[in-house]
Amino acid sequence: MNLPNINEARKRTDKKTEYIYLNEEYDKSAFKGKKYFIRTYGCQMNVHDSEEIAGHLESIGYKSVDSIEEADLVILNTCAIRENAHDKLYGFLGRCKHVKTSTNPNLIIAICGCMAQEENVINELKTKHPYVDLVFGTHNICDLEKLLNNKTEKQNIEVFSCEGNVYENVPYKRDSKFKAWVNIQYGCDKFCTYCIVPYTRGKQRSRKSIDILKECEDLVKNGYLEITLLGQNVNAYGKDLDGEISFAELLKKVSDTGIKRLRFVTSHPWDFTDEMIDVIASNDNIMPYIHLPLQSGSDRILKLMGRRYTKEEYITLFNKIKNKVKGCSITTDIIVGFPNESDEDFNETLDVVNTCKYDSAFTFIYSPREGTPAAKIDDKVPMEVKEKRLHELNELINKYSLENNKKLLDKEVEVLVEGINEKDSTKLYGYTDTMKLVNFEGTKDLIGTLVNVTITDAKSFSLDGKLK
Ligand code: SAH
Ligand code: SF4
Ligand code: F3S
């Protein structure tokens, strides 16, 4: 068995990525009558991986159910980004164990995703959670059928610490009929010092543009209205491939497929080119919305984080985007309490927020991830100080979110209707081109269509509107 190992992951070879085109004949009767339940934690990448897992399972006969109690197989697709992601998993695992010991001893419990790529997690599963039947990593989702057929091992652990390949012709079962995720690149080579992702997801591997375009063209043909291109650093797309087009060129080609709405996540400020900004500005179907993670406003901390840009460079880029892309909304990610962050460092972060006045932001307290360089730093800042900073930052972020949202009052916006509001079934919800959540009264036949809505009220996290 080849356990995930962070030291190994760091010593990446220049081995060329293998492109594997699946052309399997699936046997729908193999697991006929069996039912599965997937719980997904983490980012869009994990959400999309769960669509891949569901696709594989349904192509061999499994059907999905909505609860652990009805399932023959429970899959927990995990996230490792912060400690609280671990806590959530173990809470849910407890519920699965209860079902297995009380009502369904044949329940298969499987764990996959980013936590499954951590050596300490694997060791904990082996010693403390022997009732977990199957563990697989982020690199071998398409081996799922083989793993389910393997009945010899008591606890079957199949995770690799490897560079990773690229699989094509994956049988996705997409959650939505009008909104699709499309991977353009896997893994990450940035190795920001606080982050676990380069270890859990392998080295950066771009898909070939010809395969991406084919997938996007098929989505358009099948009536999809929105595509989001996915990668940890979409703007570094193609850099790992000889002679591949750049992200700006890819964006233009996907835009030319005629998809109504095109989005992408995540853009690292470091690789953001002028050519990209021009393509976004000059194509109406590329949405005026960019997620541009800041992480910190202090040059000292940015350097320790290994982010490769300064506060000034970030703000210059920010302004360039705002000036060129009309009405562009920009959101961000910020970490407070990186080891030994001082009040001055934190004030630099607040200063960037006051300059950029973000549309919204995801804010986090730094969480040490075992094996990453930052986790080795002896941190002198007490948790209370970090919590206070987070609170102060959030107040400021919410103030600007509200201010930005208020600018939309009485304006007409286009909304892609996604579903029925969970709290009030007379209302629908959807997102504007700038990725703002809008709630408004309407009937469910509008789900999956683009409608015009006049904004009647603005809050920090959402807008209320009225159908035109
Ligand atoms: N590839 C993206 C980020 C993916 S992770 C990028 O580089 O921008 C999503 C966010 O989680 C990060 O932007 C960061 O703000 C946060 N994050 C990552 N590692 C973290 C850690 N150890 N502690 C706290 N937050 C973290
Ligand atoms: Fe993590 Fe940095 Fe890669 Fe983003 S770019 S996934 S923060 S290592
Ligand atoms: Fe979490 Fe892995 Fe995404 S660690 S944030 S699920 S890449």
Give the topology.
Elements: H1 6-10, E1 19-21, E2 35-40, H2 44-59, E3 63-64, E4 73-78, H3 83-102, E5 108-113, H4 119-128, E6 134-136, H5 144-149, E7 156-158, E8 166-168, E9 179-183, E10 185-186, H6 197-200, E11 205-206, H7 209-221, E12 226-230, H8 247-255, E13 261-265, H9 274-282, E14 289-291, H10 299-305, H11 311-324, E15 329-336, H12 343-356, E16 360-365, H13 383-406, E17 412-420, E18 427-432, E19 437-441, E20 450-458, E21 463-467
Parallel strand pairs: 1-8, 2-3, 2-4, 4-5, 5-6, 6-7, 9-12, 12-13, 14-15, 15-16, 19-21
Antiparallel strand pairs: 10-11, 17-18, 17-20, 18-19, 20-21
Helix pairs in contact: 8-9, 11-12, 12-13
Bound molecules: S-adenosyl-L-homocysteine, iron/sulfur cluster (SF4) and FE3-S4 cluster (F3S).
Characterization of this structure:
- This protein is an alpha/beta fold and 468 residues long.
- The model has no long low-confidence stretch (mean pLDDT 94).
- The protein starts with 5 loop residues before the first helix and ends with a strand.
- The chain is globular, with a radius of gyration of 23 Å.
- Helix 8 (247-255) links the parallel strand 12 (226-230) and strand 13.
- Helix 8 (247-255) runs parallel beside helix 9 (274-282), helix 11 (311-324) packs parallel to helix 12 (343-356) and helix 12 packs parallel to helix 13.
- Among the domains are: 6-158, Rossmann fold (3-Layer(aba) Sandwich), CATH 3.40.50; 176-287, Transcription Regulator spoIIAA, CATH 3.30.750.210; 412-467, OB fold (Dihydrolipoamide Acetyltransferase, E2P), CATH 2.40.50.140.
- The protein is built from 13 helices and 21 strands.
- The structure holds S-adenosyl-L-homocysteine, iron/sulfur cluster (SF4) and FE3-S4 cluster.
